[in-house]
Amino acid sequence: MTITDTPIRLPIPPLPRGFRVAAVHAGIKRNASREDVTLVASDLPATAAGVYTTNLVYAAPVAYDRSLTPGRNFRGVAINSGNANACTGARGLDDARAMAAAAGKLIGAAADEVLVLSTGIIGEFLPLEKITRGLEQAAARLAVDDDAVVTAARGMMTTDTRPKLAGSTFAADGTAYTLFGMAKGAAMIGPRLATMLGVVLTDAAIEPADAERLLREAAETSFNCVSVDGHMSTNDTVLLLANGAAGGGTLHGAGLAAFGRSLSAACETLAREMADDGEGATHVMRIEVTGCATRDEARQVARTIADSPLVKTAVHGADPNWGRIVSAAGYSGVRFDPTQVRLRLNGTLLFQAGAPVPFDADAVSASIKAARETLIELELGSGPGAIRFYSSDLTAEYVHLNADYHT
Amino acid sequence: MTITDTPIRLPIPPLPRGFRVAAVHAGIKRNASREDVTLVASDLPATAAGVYTTNLVYAAPVAYDRSLTPGRNFRGVAINSGNANACTGARGLDDARAMAAAAGKLIGAAADEVLVLSTGIIGEFLPLEKITRGLEQAAARLAVDDDAVVTAARGMMTTDTRPKLAGSTFAADGTAYTLFGMAKGAAMIGPRLATMLGVVLTDAAIEPADAERLLREAAETSFNCVSVDGHMSTNDTVLLLANGAAGGGTLHGAGLAAFGRSLSAACETLAREMADDGEGATHVMRIEVTGCATRDEARQVARTIADSPLVKTAVHGADPNWGRIVSAAGYSGVRFDPTQVRLRLNGTLLFQAGAPVPFDADAVSASIKAARETLIELELGSGPGAIRFYSSDLTAEYVHLNADYHT
Q1: Residue A247 shares a structural domain with residue A289
Q2: CA A25 → CA A116, A186, A198, distances in Å?
Q3: CA-based, 20 to 30 A from A157: which of A57, B152, B192, B265?
Q4: pTM for the full predicted model
């Protein structure tokens, strides 16, 4: 495959120093042009942290990774798509460990120095032979170029239409660092860490506890603020690996804060990409809720709006239907005074003081039609709690994809 | 109109003694063949109770009725469709009272002896002249025959494809009583008393406090156990009127319990009808959750399954996708032990002890295709908490209805 086959937003971000990646088609997915095994290798031992699904029914790779992070001395991540290794009991956990061991053997690491990610069909055992062979082929191709990066991100994809990449640089005490992220997710995207996989790599050196804390904070305002269908997966995982290859020593203080900002920005980019690539989506909804008592309350209001099929279909139909938005806020469970509410759609004021205001419905409808992103701004009062939340609209194509294809 | 035009499940239940109904087209709906004003009159003063939306953004008729119920001496209900009188501020409340006063004048009652229900477009003022004229015409046609009953139920409808009726009889101390219910609702049907209107009439005599308590209990296992799209409306209301026209004295003890059972059965029938008539629905899902600690926990699990677009589309596609059902339960927020879970779909065991069991997927798929109702039975453990919940599947037609038509 060549990267020109892949619809992707340029530029492709560079890998941080000391990381190499590769992906191959190992035969898990039926379509031979789709990569399904990705290997991420770190030349140096890396700090790793993870955030995971809160679904009670969680998959074997989640159990495996959660038992190991946060920690030091990680050397890589083995990833497969096409099979989630979920609802597979004790054998599933053995298989996750075997997959980590197989990858570790190829890069000179122990099983517990490699993390694993799986996504795809639920309830079937991992095809370990195919995965092991795929990892062998991938290990032979580990590279740092754009083609390797895009292929690696494609190897995580299921129904995604494009790989999701983010990158940034930051500096601390005269050292320049690179941060890179890749993710997948287009459905079973729920509001509290969704059916998604994400891998964030940096060449900074970070203490495990700091990595864990900053990854959690970044997820709070990114992966926990995105929804396609509100259905939380069994496999959601975001991993952060920090290998220190840039030199400059372990980050603390202002350097650590700079890393945290870079991490949050990359996570938000990846989260927005998931909503944008939501199954069948024709619009990405950016929902800005302000004036709540707390950020959690703002998120709860935003999530209720984001998950309302009536709001999602209204956006799809370019209908400036303030009633659906305001009434969704009203049943979110968050207390507010309806007479203090103010709603703007794509910048136009539609509702305030408990009643609609006159507006040019045709113009607002045209603005929805004209852009991929629809902006919903809802002020609920004067409190400090605010959130930005991304969601997709609901289309007949989403229904076709999920009714007509078995997963 | 003649009742043969109307798809309806026969037999049409009779009105309790002492109640008369009528409906007319008053020009609120554009289509002149659609009734939009309904009048319910009680010849005797009736006890009335109500349950209402818990949406913070509630409509004027909700505010008006809630201020009056529970109580005695009610003489009727004035209902309009096509305009919800929601988000209409102080004028909306004045309009609700004026509508009650207009109806009261026609049947010899004060404004506060008449309750009002409105459903339809949000954010526009009631067309009071049209409604008053419609009430006058309806008052002249009040009747008890099947045609009047079906027309009255049609006068509440918005996107419903058919009127929703329920009826039963019960006896206490040698007196025979009749109970009658009519309701509307096909979208904005949320899980905690949904966008729906319901009116239940009985010729029994009931104390206001008993009427209130039993109506709440009945709603808990009927209207609070139904979902089309999880979006809670601003106007949800169920009213119960009990006029004592059957004689036999005020019900207590065993007689009151018999009434309560009759009331619950009628409410469940109406609630199921709403899910069955869900916008675009091709299936009604009956979700039976058992083995929880409490009924509320069982309802929370059932609601999460009912509202998952992935479960809804799987049922639409006749896909026995146990993974979507089990994983929805897993993110419901209710604690359970996944190894104790047992799932049946249309009677076939699909999942137990934390893993899928072998089953004939083609046969189960065929059973989904063959019937309007799909039965999902989920055992989560050995607790006493159980619930029955109704929902509709999600189809492209739902998307078309809500994206392409403005409400």
Answers
A1: no
A2: 17, 21, 20
A3: A57
A4: 0.77
- How far apart, in whole angstroms, are the C-alpha atoms of residue B265 and residue B271? 10
Partners of A190 on chain B (C-beta within 8 Å) are 331
Q: Are residues B290 and B247 in the same domain?
A: no
Tens digits of residue pLDDT in A277-304: 878 889 999 999 999 999 999 999 999 9
* CB contact (8 A) between residue B123 and residue A56: no
Q: How far is A399 from chain B (nearest CA, A)?
A: 6
Measured distance CA(A2)–CA(A146) in Å, rounded: 10
Eight-state DSSP code of residue B21? E
- The amino acid sitting at B300 is Q
Chain B: give the shortest CA distance to residue A87, in Å: 5
CA B301 – CA A16 distance, rounded (Å): 44
Binned at pLDDT 50, 70 and 90, residue A97 comes out as very high
Residues A257 and A359 in one domain: no
Q: What is each CA distance from B30 to B26, B52, B129, in whole angstroms?
A: 10, 28, 16
> Which of B209, B243, B276 is where one domain is finished?
B276
Select from A257, A276, A295 the last residue of a domain: A276
A162 with A249, same domain: the answer is yes
The string of pLDDT tens digits covering residues A19-37 is 999 999 999 998 888 999 9
For A217-243, write each residue's pLDDT tens digit.
988 888 877 776 666 667 777 789 899
Question: Are residues A397 and A262 part of one domain?
Answer: no
H helix or E strand, kind and range, residue B263: helix B253-276
Tokens of B247: 């004689």
Q: Which is catalytic among the residues B38, B119, B195, B234? A: B195
- Are residue A143 and residue A271 in the same domain, yes or no? yes
Q: What is the CATH number of the domain that holds A320?
A: 3.10.20.340
Split into its structural domains, chain B has a count of 2
Q: CATH code at B257? A: 3.60.70.12
Beta-carbon separation of A316 and B231 below 8 A: no
Question: CB–CB of A157/A34 below 8 Å?
Answer: yes
Q: Are B406 and A229 in contact (CB < 8 Å)?
A: no
- Spatial distance between the Cα atoms of A46 and A58, rounded to a whole number of angstroms: 25
Cis peptide before A358 (omega within 30 of 0): no
Which residues in B97-203 belong to E strands, given as ranges?
A: 114-121, 164-172, 175-184, 197-202
* Helices and strands: H and E segment counts in chain A: 11, 15
- Which of A94, A282, A327 is the best residue to mutate to test the B interface, defined by the most B CB atoms within 10 Å of its own CB? A327
Alpha carbon of B307: minimum distance to chain A alpha carbons (Å): 9
Residue among B232, B336, B394 minimizing CB distance to A399:
B394
Q: Do residue A240 and residue A329 come from a single domain?
A: no
Name the phi and psi angles at A375, rounded to 5: -100, 120
Domain encompassing residue B96: 3-276
Span B217-246, pLDDT tens digits: 988 888 877 776 666 667 777 789 899 999
Instruction: Assess whether pLDDT exceeds 80 at residue A50.
Output: yes
Residues B272 and B293 in one domain: no
> CA B97, CA B236: separation in Å to the nearest integer?
18
| Mutation for A interface: B53, B310, B349, B351, most A CBs within 10 A | B310
Q: How far from the centroid of its chain's Cα atoms is residue A38's Cα?
A: 17
Helices (H), A167-319: 208-220, 253-276, 295-307, 309-316
Nearest Cα residue to A154 out of A166, A163, A146, A145: A163
